[in-house]
Amino acid sequence: MALIQGIKINNFILRTGTGSNLSNIYYNKFHVSSIQQLDQKWRKKNRFTQNPNAFGPLTNLPDYSFADGRPVPFGVRQMTRINKQRQYFTKIKQLASEVDYAVERYNRIQNELTEKKKSIIDSKLKPKGQKYLAAAK
To answer: Can you give the pTM of this predicted structure?
Structure first.
């Protein structure tokens, strides 16, 4: 048995039933809409997307095809999705190149520091005499 609860806010009455995903919105005792929420736990458990209309053959494929094989023009939403994916691609490409540049710059700076330390050590005074000549041979 479902328990019905009602909340009144500025002439709106929101009634929800426990035991189901049913919510009804009333305005001055006139039914406005019914809100059906997807069972997100079930969708996550079965590895489905949160929004079934965001991706899939119904949204990605054309609505029809020509018998002679001509390409079908893009729909309005499909073109916006393609443009959005292009923007994502350019942004990802730009950020990846910036990361590559930063890594190369860091390696170059580290190499310059080691070369500078090595040149400082090489420019210091060196021992002279018989021991140095014997060690050099």
So the answer is: 0.47
